[in-house]
Amino acid sequence: MRTALTVAAIAIAGEALAVEWNVSLWGKRRAFTEHVEKLAELVSAKTNGEFTLNLSYGGLSKNRENLDGISIGAFEMAQFCAGYHGDKNPTITVLELPFLGVRTLEEEVAVSHAVYAHPATVADLARWNAKLLMTSPMPQYNIVGTGEPRDELSEFQGMRVRATGGLGRAFEAAGAEPTSVTATEAQQAMETGLVDTVAFAQHAHLSFQTIDLAEWWTTNLNPGTVNCPVVVNVDAYDALSEEHRAALDGSIDEAIQHYLDNYGELLAKWDDILDEKNVQRVVIADAELEEFRRVAGPIRDAWIEEMASQGLPSQELYDLVQSTLASMR
Fold it and tell me: What is the distance between the alpha carbons of residues 118 and 108, in angstroms, rounded to a whole number?
């Protein structure tokens, strides 16, 4: 009897060790979520299935409400984009300023994680009981549209463009009319004429099917990108055993590398995708790009001043981005 009870106690203890986290994503599995998919795979393997991440694509929350869900513990992990609610995460909006000078996905990872580790950013997200885990690095955005290609800045006047955050402000400075419909709403907005153009990274044009409606795509506009972190609920993270926390933290670099490798494969196929869908490549002249940078320039200074008025070390955060880029080069 004593042996049987011991076995039962061990079995019960083993069950208690099992941890399941719910992860709130949106859309469908795509290049943008491959690091989360890989993270789930690695964590499960390292813990022999004792710690699992249950990924939900839209079943737990709307994409604009993921940070709110994290704050109340509705789920343990989530992905969100800073531009969806800049007032809730002002520190990381520095990463969405136009023309930061980021050239590669590896640089995007470096600047994002540097900003995430800054004490002001940590405190900012802690207001939502959130801990920044890793970024979702995306290349520079470019726009798709229909009709005559818009390859001169003057043609941006009155252009209705789906663009969020700092990118939206950059287009607005050039005379366009930005709207921040979510990624999942972008195709319908383009199809119904709510917007003339959509600014996305390549994977999103493909995943959300805006490329299927496009007649042209800018190859080199490159005004910036959107920053979309993966965060965890602080209480859930703190409640992990040392083994499970080590499995999670120790899998981040490999998950990010998997993301980079996978995204690289997509970029290598992008020209073939454009050819297949008969999408014209539009090259913006250097003089037009320089003018775009000029009109967007004041956005950075305005952001620094506005954030400083809120008590945030905005100049320090911007300088951190630049010094991180310099150190990588």
Answer: 16
Alpha carbons 252 and 46: distance in angstroms, whole number: 13
Residues pairing with 179 in the sheet: 162
Amino acid at site 163: A
Pairing of strands 77-79, 160-162: unpaired
Who's near 146: CB < 8 A, 6+ residues apart? Answer: 190, 196, 213, 214, 215, 216
CA distance 17 to 268: 43
Overall residue count recorded for the chain in this entry: 329
Given a cut of 90, is residue 236 above it in pLDDT?
A: yes
Long-range contacts, stretch 309-313, CB < 8 angstroms, 24+ apart:
310/90, 312/90, 312/91, 312/120, 312/124, 313/118, 313/120
Q: How far apart are CA 143 and CA 218, in angstroms?
A: 6
Under 8 Å between Cβ of 303 and 239: no
* Per-residue pLDDT at 32 exceeds 90: yes
The backbone torsions φ and ψ at residue 111, rounded to the nearest 5 degrees and listed phi first, read -70, -35
Tokens 């737990």 belong to which residue? 60
Model pLDDT for residues 88-141, shown as the tens digit of each residue? 999 999 999 999 999 999 999 999 999 999 999 999 999 999 999 999 999 999
- 3-class secondary structure, 327: helix
Distances (CA, A) of 154 to 159, 161, 200, 201: 10, 14, 21, 23
Nearest Cα to Cα of residue 174 among 159, 190, 164: 159
Rounded CA-CA distance 70/243 in Å is 23
Token representation of residue 328: 């990588």
Q: Where are the alpha helices (DSSP H) in the chain?
A: 2-17, 34-46, 66-71, 105-117, 119-126, 165-173, 186-191, 202-207, 234-239, 242-249, 252-276, 286-309, 314-328
- Torsion angles phi and psi, residue 181, rounded to 5: -60, 150
62 secondary structure, DSSP code? -
